[in-house]
Amino acid sequence: MESNETKWRGLLDKQNIIAQAGFNRWLVPPAALAIHLCIGMAYGFSVFWLPLSQAIGIGKPVACPADTSMLQILFTTTCDWKVADLGWMYTLFFVLLGSSAAIWGGWLERVGPRKAGFVSTLCWCGGLLISAAGVYTHQLWMMWLGSGVIGGIGLGLGYISPVSTLVKWFPDRRGMATGMAIMGFGGGAMIGSPLADMLMNYFKTPTSVGVWQTFIVMAVIYFVSMMIGSFGYRIPPVGWIPEGWTPPVKKNAMITHGHVHLKNAHKTPQFWLIWAVLCLNVSAGIGVIGMASPMLQEIFAGSLIAQPSIGFADLNADQKKAIATIAAGFVGLLSLFNIVGRFFWASLSDKMGRKLTYFTFFGLGIALYAAAPWAGHEGLLAVFVLFFCIILSMYGGGFATVPAYLADMFGTQFVGAIHGRLLTAWSTAGIVGPVVVNYIREAQIAAGVPRAQVYDRTMLILAGMLVLGFIANLLIRPVAEKWFMTDAEVAELHAQYAKSHEHDPSGSFGIGRGGLDASTALAWTLIGIPIAWGVWITFSKALILFK
């Protein structure tokens, strides 16, 4: 007799999530969004830094002795953590995201998206619970381990879990499909940050800043959402194509009809050129994200409060508080364009082609970075904001377009695992971008450069990064025939999870039809409500920029 444990494992098996007749492919993107909107809160963790930096002092940080070592800080219960010490969680997020996606990407292709999503749920939500215990006991090492390491592994698995599935479900709209899902990762902080702020204010007491309680509540919410998403995943049967769709007769040299094995993808120059393309695009954008608030404040200073004659150094405490609030609106607006850009540019790439889309990112980005100092010096706030909104839309668009680029180059058989390995470019960019922006800023300030001009050289260096990205993209050519798997090798892989279906000459098996039927409309409504709420909150805060 089959045990309950065996039945439970069977629910996660790849062969048991192959779609049957009547399944609507438009149910898969909401499942992916249910996971990505949760793990995307990694972008918004900075909302916890200030409260956690005064978890003991409650309102006023209790400083550690000057001779306290880093090892002691990890275990101390008598003084508060510094924001810089907490910020290592952010670094761990993206280092572990890239490395875990690279390490376990091949495993994901073997076991399917549901099991990967399930493990991602346990890691991300379990990491939040460990972090809650770390806050409650005031143990920094538990937060680094919980959210940083274990949660970071969950990020990597959750991020790549829908990629190959969506590419296979939407061969006619690869860019749009991956853009819909990866849009969710960019939108996670847009929803999670205001939610966390509301929860911390609710749980705040004279003896608690309300963070550990917030972690627990968010872990429960995310667990439910991510489990629904994981069990909502389905994969198409071998040979499936959308009903009524036929692959284009006219061949595009940049879109392969074969498949490159995971073990060979990294041996090709195309892999490393796309790696460089992603790394350079992300390095430029992520550096701006990290310094967006101080950048706007230092460049425009008194102009933000209708007093253009006052420089940043001459602002009083109340004025600095006022412009910080305005700069927060700028950060929110950038976040919104980061999200919208993921869907817009990825969808547009289906029409333009991936290579031309990246040429647009780099060419337009170079021009905007080079022109940004001029807009700042001229006091053109609206123009400056517009420049960086477009830049951040292309930053997000780069993330969302790259899975389709990989599918075009290497085929769909191992695209999820190849994408996982490519995400090491993100881990690298997460270090390179902020270091370049932060250290150049500090060097300029130390050299006595006025605050309004300290970013001029930085913008030119970021433009230079995009020039290198433009060249890398220019060098990408179709993958050589010698790297493609034979038909027999592909058939052998398919046989490992193929499931019998009634013969259908069209190849659609009665699957993928339905459009916006009742169940699909419900799924999109449920996922759309929190997105709409997050957009409204973000847009409301951003309006202060133009008052």
CATH fold descriptor of the largest domain: Growth Hormone, Chain: A
Tell me the CATH architecture of the largest domain.
Answer: Up-down Bundle
Q: How many domains would you count in the coordinates?
A: 2
Order of helices and strands: HHHHHHHHHHHHHHHHHHHHH
Helical region count?
Answer: 21
Low-confidence regions: none
Q: Largest beta sheet, briefly?
A: none
Mean pLDDT level: 87
What portion of residues is helical? 55-70%
Write out the CATH superfamily name of the largest domain: MFS general substrate transporter like domains
Shape: globular
The helix-and-strand class reads mainly alpha
Strand content of the residues, in percent?
under 5%
How far do the termini sit from each other? 70 Å
Q: Provide the gyration radius in Å.
A: 24 Å
How many strand segments? 0
CATH class of the largest domain: Mainly Alpha
Topology of this structure?
Layout: H1 4-12, H2 28-39, H3 49-52, H4 70-75, H5 83-86, H6 88-111, H7 113-137, H8 140-160, H9 163-169, H10 174-203, H11 211-232, H12 262-265, H13 269-300, H14 317-352, H15 354-377, H16 381-410, H17 415-422, H18 424-446, H19 456-474, H20 487-495, H21 518-542
Helix pairs in contact: 2-10, 2-11, 6-7, 6-8, 6-17, 6-18, 7-8, 7-11, 9-10, 9-17, 10-11, 10-14, 10-16, 10-21, 13-14, 13-15, 13-16, 13-18, 13-19, 14-15, 14-16, 14-21, 15-16, 15-19, 16-17
